[in-house]
Amino acid sequence: MAGKSIAYHHFQRALAQWPIDILRPQVSFQHVMRRRIEKQLGPSTPDKSTYDPAKESKDTLVTSLKPYDEQAQLAQVNALYSFMENRYSKKYPLSDRLLKPLSNPGYYENLMKELDEAPKRSFFGRLLNSWKGFVRWS
Fold it and tell me: Which of 7, 72, 118, 125 is deepest in the core (most CB within 10 A)?
C-alpha cells in the first residue's frame, strides 16, 4: 500500500500543477485523470453506500483484477512531469526553418495569435469569424 500512496501523491501533485485548457474548459484533463487514479490507486474495497453490483460491468471487474505495478505508475507520473516541464521541447528545439515554412512564413505566428484571442471572444465575435471563413473577399 505504501507504493500506491507514493504514486497517488505524485499524481495528485502533478495534476494540481497541470495548466487548465482555456480553449476547452469544459473538458478537463485533470478531472479525467483524477477519476482514473481514484479508480486504480484509491481504496481497493468499494464504499458500501455507493457500491451497486448491478451497475458494475465486466470491464470494471477485469480492470480491478489487474495487478498493481508501481514502476508503471511512477513512469506515467514521470511522463506527466516531463510534459509540464517541457523536457522534450528543450531537448529537441524546433528550427526556424520548420517554424517559418517558405510557403507561409507567418502561419504559426498567426495560429498562436488566433489561439490566444479565441477564448476571449464574445459570441458575436465567434459568429463574425465563422462568417468571415465562409465569405472570401479577393
Answer: 7
